[in-house]
UniProtKB/TrEMBL annotation:
SMART domains: ShKT. The keyword Electron transport does not apply. Residues 1-25 form the signal peptide. Residues 414-433 are annotated as: Disordered. It comes from the Bacteria. InterPro entries: HAF_rpt (IPR014262), ShKT_dom (IPR003582). This is ShKT domain-containing protein. It holds the Pfam family ShK.
């Protein structure tokens, strides 16, 4: 692993942007509902978590764990014995998900406004007028929900339910106005910023092939405007994967040589800063992907090294091509690592391997480098989410008996959470004078409208190196680049 001292410019930029994250404790098992299995889906800045647990009858129920408690509270569905799923949790404890409704068992988007009252029914979120079904995919810290609304003819449209609203706001496709034909066919949202009426980013499929990164911003009329983000000169398509409260956007673009580079767009949407490889002088042929961005504009991501293995990095964009370089996060005895999120205090959460090949969760900070987060007695730990302030982590670990159990990791000592919140506020202020507290939790949203064909000419080589079967890349990433080669359904 390359050290800070070997890259003075990177050292200065990172230390200027990062706070000192609070130390983390060992995983604590979260209680269940009598069925012996739980999974966690999200956690907020207070440590309250949401997920699913199996009850004694064998049914999986949406579940809430209050801050400071490991007691599992089951959440009601829209109908008796109806199946539901919890997707994530907002800063104030609201939980978004989907529940079955009707004899056909179709799932509908919902929000549990007061999950601490398990008897309270969820609130149904409506699709667009005229559409016959909808689905939620994630919730941001302010309680805004993103998803898709589907017409009777099967056309999916990305939508946002603003905080405390049940009416869907459709996100338009970029291009010409009707009745002229748009250059874009379908769009997908990958991330929201932390506002009640959030900015959204994602990508759209071009009618002539390829993808374009896009940003949707709320307008004065209550709807949304859309803008296409510039790519790399003479390069191919782009996708945007994360957006911060400051307006900075992280994503990935194809360059003129057909290689993938991590990018960061400024709020002005000028030409993006590029990270082509690690180290910069050995970038040719590497494939570099952004995964998340924090309030200070730091980008975490992953790259395919020359040996075909996935590694993780953190990058402090300088908007100066001669100085753009990332820092490899290292390994814990294995050969691969995959970063998932970066918190506003600079902590990075991801997954890596041990020397024995077991999958484990890692946390990285400038002080501790990469650290094994431990298990509940078994061999594996699969991280699910980290709070925006970096103080809390949830996931699933194996126990001594080999069962999978949800866990939560919090600050290691009393008062650490308060220090984390203070550092989080300072970082947000540095990132943007008007940035909202809370940050972006780096939600990796499933692609609601996966492509049905490969969008990159190098898919054959990537597949040969294990891209499709690797657990270090999300389904959305695989679908965005090599859907056909990875045999992903339309």
């Amino acid at each position: 692993m390359r050290r800070f001292a070997s890259h003075p410019f990177l050292h200065t930029a990172l230390l200027a942007a990062l706070a000192i994250p609070a130390a983390q404790a060992a995983p604590t098992a979260l209680g269940g509902l009598g069925g012996g299995a739980c999974t966690a889906a999200g956690v907020n800045d207070s440590g309250a978590a949401a997920g699913q647990c199996r009850n004694a009858a064998g049914d999986f129920l949406p579940t809430y764990w209050a801050a400071g408690s490991v007691v599992a509270l089951p959440l009601r569905g829209l109908q008796l014995d109806g199946v539901c799923e919890a997707l994530g949790i907002a800063r104030d404890g609201q939980i978004a998900g989907n529940c079955e409704l009707g004899d056909a068992g179709e799932r509908r988007p919902v929000v549990w406004r007061t999950p601490s009252l398990p008897a309270a029914a969820p609130q149904l979120l409506n699709g667009r007028i005229g559409d016959d079904r909808a689905m939620a995919t994630a919730i941001n810290p302010a309680g805004a929900v993103v998803g898709v609304s589907t017409s009777p003819g099967g056309r999916d449209v990305p939508v946002i339910w603003k905080s405390d609203r049940t009416a869907a706001t459709a996100l338009p496709v970029p291009g010409t106005l009707p009745p002229l034909l748009s250059p874009v066919t379908q769009c997908r949202v990958m991330a929201l910023d932390p506002a009640p009426a959030p900015v959204a980013v994602g990508s759209c499929d071009l009618r002539q092939g390829g993808t374009v990164a896009v940003r949707w911003t709320p307008n004065a009329l209550g709807g949304y405007g859309v803008a296409m983000l510039p790519g790399i000169a003479s390069g191919g398509g782009c996708i945007a994967v994360a957006v911060a409260a400051s307006g900075h956007i992280a994503g990935t673009c194809e360059d003129a040589a057909g290689d993938m580079a991590a990018v960061r767009w400024l709020p002005t949407l000028a030409a993006p800063a590029l990270l082509r490889g690690l180290p910069r002088e050995a970038a040719q042929g590497q494939q570099v992907f952004a995964a998340d961005i924090n309030a200070a504009g730091l980008v975490a991501g992953n790259y395919i090294a020359s040996d075909g293995r996935a590694r993780s990095f953190v990058w402090a964009p300088a908007d100066a091509p001669a100085h753009e370089d990332g820092l490899d996060l290292g390994l814990l005895g294995g050969s691969q690592a995959y970063a998932r999120q970066i918190a506003d205090d600079g902590r990075i959460l991801g997954m890596t391997e041990t020397a024995q090949g077991a999958q484990i969760a890692f946390s990285w900070t400038p002080e501790d480098d990469m650290r094994d987060l431990g298990t509940l007695g078994g061999h594996t730990n699969l991280p699910a989410a980290m709070s925006p302030n970096g103080a809390w982590i949830v996931g699933v670990s194996t126990t001594v008996s080999g069962y999978r159990q949800a866990y939560r990791i919090g600050p290691a000592e009393a008062g650490a959470s308060r220090r984390g919140e203070t550092a989080h506020t300072a970082n947000t202020a540095r990132a943007h004078a008007e940035a909202a507290e809370g940050g972006y939790p780096g939600l990796q949203l499933p692609n609601p409208m996966p492509a049905c064909h490969d969008k990159h000419s190098r898919c054959g080589a990537w597949v040969a190196n294990g891209f499709c079967v690797s657990t270090f890349y999300s389904r959305a990433q695989k679908a965005a680049y090599c859907a056909s080669s990875c045999n992903l359904p339309c």
